[in-house]
Amino acid sequence: MAKPNPKKTPMREQEPKVRARNFDEVPYGYTPEEAIAEAQRCLQCKKPSCVKGCPVEVDIPGFVSQIAKGSFLEAMKAMKRTNVLPAVCGRVCPQESQCEGQCVLGKKNEPVGIGNLERFIADWEAEQKECVQCEKLPPTGKKVAVVGAGPAGLTVAGDCLKMGHDVVIFEALHKPGGVLAYGIPEFRLPKSIVEREVNFVVSTGAKLVLDYVVGMTRTVDELLSEFDAVFIGTGAGRPWFMNLEGENALGIYSANEYLTRSNLMKAYLFPKYDTPIVRGKRVATIGGGNVAMDSARTALRLGAEKSIIVYRRSKQEMPARAAEVHHAEQEGIEFQFLTNPVRYIADEKGWIEELECLRMELGEPDASGRRRPVEVKGSEFRIPVDTVVVAIGNSPNPLIPATTPGLQIGKHGNIVADPVTGRTSKKGVFAGGDIVTGAATVILAMGAGRIAANSLNEYLKTGAW
């Protein structure tokens, strides 16, 4: 058997200078020939460690082996046994720290491009104009309410439908998808892809109810009077700020608002879509995660002459995906590492004009395992800006916790749920995703959804809590 190519089959992309000024997707995806070549690099291990690295336990050797043979339909069937959102996962999952991070081939060479292959097979299916349908068990007569049409909720809905249960998804916004729709930019995850994945779940039998705010329109207790079980997957959409002097100046946004205006409300197409957004010339984004990368890259596409990432640690400690940092660097984003904002300075009209910062140095590791940033005394300096986007994290919206007696809540406002079962302190109520963990990744939310769906199914069969 010939040795596999040590390097991944590269994916063609838009040129950095071109894509930095448009909202089109950055990578073009594999051709069938490229996908087959990449799939043939897989060693087909007898004990595939890549599967252990996947929160939803996709049959990676199974679908990759089918692509290697050119059997794309069979590959898609293998994929959809566990993953109802493959086009999303192929684009936004942090594969380098999950499935690809566990790939045996990656110990000496580059790992198999599992994410690229996942994206390919999902896009191939879309081109066929016909969806591979999942096998479903006979109807059970049980009804499940899913609160939130984000990654966790969609996964629970898809799995419960396969198990034969009726599912109604309640979504507060006017578009489904959760963070996939409002948080991730078009150039990284086109909204047509999100719509396609949601439509698949609906096509398998889910009823989708939009503009429905559980906790206001109806409470969880009221849902329990109609449904046999409820899953809460409402995410973490309440933005954090730093409580700095001058924080109420004009031109300072949470990343949630900045990205929601651009993504869900298509402000980048203004005035065709009548959603105004500030098009800053010098934009500073505070933070080092994927949301910060998305915000800084969006600012460029909205016309910024300079888009700056301000991050209090070094590049090595950044939690963002390596691919997102790489793309940001290519596009000309300026990085101010070991830099911490301490004050906002506004002009006479109240508009932000400078961001005062301190230089930092790295000390001993903190609870996250990363080295703690320590202030360098007397190192204050200012960055001229006209827009600031704060992307330092989020916490759950308190609405459902406040309107659901008997639901145990953690100190940060998150719902407490058993990580092994997704069960909460309230009988018949399950929860998963960012509402439980705080802001995390799409695939971890999906993994929590799978766990909750299996536990929920067991509860509906036995009644045991």
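Second entry:
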Amino acid sequence: MQPNKKVLASIEKKTSLREQAYQQLEEAIVTMELAPGMVVSEQALSEMTQIGRTPIREAIQRLARENLITVLPQRGILVAEMDVQQQLKLIETRREVERLICRSAARRANAMERAQFARLAQEFTEEADQCDSARFMRSDKEFNELCLKAARNEFAEGAMRLMQGLSRRFFYHNYLHTDDLPFIARQHADLAHCIAQGNEEAAAASSDTMLDSIEAFTRATLDT
């Protein structure tokens, strides 16, 4: 029996709306449009995104799993506070998972993906030279998604996705507009280049170097 085209179209539409709701809300949290500690309602989020309550509810559940929000029964939805100690624990975990993903991506990426990594390496270098934070955030997100795709390890991908939102928000708030942006952008360029070249050991080492810098910066915020 052939699948009903109307049923398939309905499923695709619901999936698309759910993903749109998630992307919009995650971006609003990462960029502080929804500030840490803010309490919002499901209705307010629906109105903000112009997306119906059901996709919003599903996006909220996903964001709660990623520790970006906490659902407060009968009270609303709390945007998670930023906690440096929590961020350090996240970095400890992220270091191990990201090393595996970068090593796997270097080994398993196909020719098209390697070309994309090479392009991103060039873009990161340009963004470092121009100190272009907006472009860097877009390139960084594309790079993260490409790494997960090229690594072809659904378990590592699942673990990393649980950490990405918190990592991006902390970076956006504390790192993005500092003088260190060119430095971290060049580290991204080096990592993208290593993966493009298929050099597993260099990719793993570059990943560790980048996480060393992120950890040092995070620890420095304890003194500010």
